[in-house]
Design the sequence.
């Protein structure tokens, strides 16, 4: 369901934070709801298997998702939560063959673990940033806490106040951002949560800018300088990154890149993969 990503984590952590669809019971195709829109061709309720999901938990139209109106599937990433819930939390027990209560609990727990794995991804990246060394000890503590929570029982995960934990981690990620951007000329460019939908930002100097949570849907960022920018949570759907320079941009994930448009001249962080549809012209 996703286009593969590399991670800044070490080999072990990196593998755990990348989706392994072959070890998952198609949880993203069942547990999550979606509405008919530009991203999805049909409506689907949470807990209801997608009509395209085969009995072997594979997508029957994986190779043609975009052409068939399922662009949303191609930009989704569970950050490894799917295989963890399938193989660890529920010990390899399939939702298709288990009692209804177990299936419901599995679908309830999956989004929680997905959020925790996303935090693990950000914390792991933060620990790889030399400028964040003053908070590395706190980051390691948060990483250990988040890993412990993600390894909880189904009952513990279902009862977890994941929003409260995200807030605690976010304080550290904000501090990390401040430290990393402190030495850049764009440190004063605060575009946090800014509404930049459709904005004309061609060639804009956004180096070192704070773009956390910014709405950049369909924005023209061709040739923009985004080096060292904080892009955590930025909505890049259909944003044009042709010839843009995102070297050193941090807290940028593969799903964000997959949702954007780009080309051979787009410069990405080494941790990310150039989406196939950029070169395929889709």
Sequence:
């Amino acid at each position: 369901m996703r286009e593969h990503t590399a991670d800044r984590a070490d080999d072990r952590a990196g593998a755990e934070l990348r989706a392994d669809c072959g070890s998952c019971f198609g949880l993203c195709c069942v547990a999550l709801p979606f509405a008919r829109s530009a991203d999805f061709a049909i409506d689907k309720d949470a807990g209801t298997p997608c009509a395209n999901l085969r009995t072997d938990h594979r997508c029957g139209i994986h190779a043609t998702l975009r052409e068939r109106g399922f662009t949303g599937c191609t930009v989704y990433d569970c950050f490894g939560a799917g295989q963890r819930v399938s193989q660890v939390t529920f010990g390899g027990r399939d939702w298709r063959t288990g009692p209804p209560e177990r299936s419901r609990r599995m679908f309830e727990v999956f989004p929680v673990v997905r959020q925790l794995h996303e935090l693990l991804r950000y914390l792991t990246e933060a620990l790889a940033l030399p400028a964040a060394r003053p908070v590395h000890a706190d980051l390691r503590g948060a990483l250990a806490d988040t890993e412990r929570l993600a390894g909880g029982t189904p009952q513990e995960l279902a009862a977890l106040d994941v929003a409260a934990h995200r807030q605690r981690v976010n304080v550290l990620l904000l501090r990390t951002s401040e430290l990393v951007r402190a030495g850049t000329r764009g440190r004063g460019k605060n575009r946090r949560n800014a509404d930049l939908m459709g904005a004309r930002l061609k060639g804009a100097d956004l180096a070192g800018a704070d773009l956390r949570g910014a709405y950049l849907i369909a924005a023209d960022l061709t040739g923009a300088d985004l080096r060292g920018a904080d892009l955590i949570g930025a909505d890049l759907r259909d944003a044009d990154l042709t010839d843009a320079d995102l070297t050193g941009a941090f807290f940028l994930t593969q799903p964000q890149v997959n949702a954007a448009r780009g080309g051979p001249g787009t410069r990405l962080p080494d941790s990310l993969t150039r989406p196939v549809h950029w070169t395929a012209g889709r």
